[in-house]
Amino acid sequence: MTEAKAHSSGFSILRDPRLSKGTAFTVEERRKYRLEGLLPPAVTNIELQAARRHTEIANLSDDLQKYLVLSDLQASNETLFYKVVMSDPATYLPLVYTPTVGEACQKFAHIFRDARGMFVPISARGRLREILGNWPEKDVRFIVVTDGERILGLGDLGDGGMGIPIGKLALYTACAGVPPQYCLPVVLDVGTNNQVLLDDPLYQGLRHSRVRGEEYMAFIDEFVDAVQQHYPKCCIQWEDFANINAVPILEHYRDKICTYNDDIQGTAGVALAGIFAALRITGQKITEQRFLFLGGGSAGTGIAELISQAMTMEGMDIAESRKRNALFDIHGLIVTSRTDLADFQKPFAQDWAPVSSFVEAVKALRPTGIIGVSTVPKLFTREVIEAKSAINERPIIFPYSNPTSRSECTAEEAYHWSDGRAVFASGSPFAPVEINGRKFIPGQGNNVYIFPAMGMAVFATEAARVTEEMFIVAAKAVAEQVTEENLAAGLIYPPQSRILDASLHVAERVAAYIFDKGLARVPPPGDIGALIRARAYRPVYPRS
Predict the structure, then answer these.
(1) CATH for 265-448, among 3.40.630.30, 3.10.20.600, 3.40.50.720, 3.40.50.1820?
(2) Is 168 tagged catalytic?
(3) Most-buried pick from 21, 271, 378, 460 (CB within 10 A)?
């Protein structure tokens, strides 16, 4: 509690989420910091405080209400917030992030309490360095930033997208132990094309249509320059940008600064992890696989590229690897004869005749796996899954679109329509499914298995860059933690109940790669695992 000594009153300590212990302040601390009379007289430890919060949240019937209770707790007592979340991650991760965060972003203007993070408007161009200087922490290591245009599968939510960076960074800490004081959520407000928001008197963002083109990119450049000037050790994670901006931003900066795009690379990493685990069920090699993606945007091409790179690591030519990853978008199968393809789609164009029906594409290409990143629900129809199951003894079916309302199919549909043979994972959580007396536990291919661990590895090593190979290393590290018992129940990701241990294992593997490739800005330790564990945050009140 050394920081608290600088405060002139106990009242200010209680209002500081990093310093407050609430009713856990001891009798001596209450006297020392002028807290007497400001708290009930009974002293309670953090375990009792957490138990009280567990009961309060469990008694609520609405997930958005639970989200708000957790959000208020984070704003008032950060240590207790992480104690609650980290004590039962399987329960709280869906509340802190997907799927609940989607509704929170949609209703952001109507549930707004206190400003958190930084809102950086394009109207402040020319002064971004000054604005970033207003943030009180002077050593920021991670910024998760969005421009709010493509929030989950919900579209343009303007500055309501702030819920995404806040939630993502909470998971950096809760799932991998990145200390929260090093994290900064940011929204870049360039306007919105959502007329509902523009007509809403409670909307708090800029009230004009989205800025595009050179002015937009100049704004991004100025933001990146300001970050580099203030926080030279900072890693920027781009989040929920539309494809037209996400791909060029990543391509422009990936070899210049420490940065990555979670929608492209994190999603690819978790999908690849699911594939590695699924292959333990099917008994096949990755070079024997063919995948068909429903969705041809940055997420689909990102996964396809990482799978292709993983295939090349097993000796396959990169061109041949890419031919094994086909994309299907709103205009049909992406083939070489089409003239409407973006540059990032062209490497995956198939030398086929046009196919306008997804089920016909399944029958023609005979993929071993189908992966949904379309954000359009119910497109993995019964006909699609039955066709897929007729081709493969153990069909790999990954409807990854978020939130739950956007999933290409449910777990129940996939298991029932495949007669229980599907190797299934989804982007959002689904309840267990029972078929003919057998219980299946659906895996959630959530990026939470990748990006927090990547963050911890970067934090511990002070990595100068984030590379594609780091995501392949992370994917293998996730998959190797899936037990035979997990696989027997259909679960192809480690249980979320042990997400911290899983993430620290992944972080150790990635950190070893960072040191091996000379990307670290600190000297290699004798024991990388010990380094990771020593740097990891634990929700424990500091002693005074």
Answers:
(1) 3.40.50.720
(2) yes
(3) 271
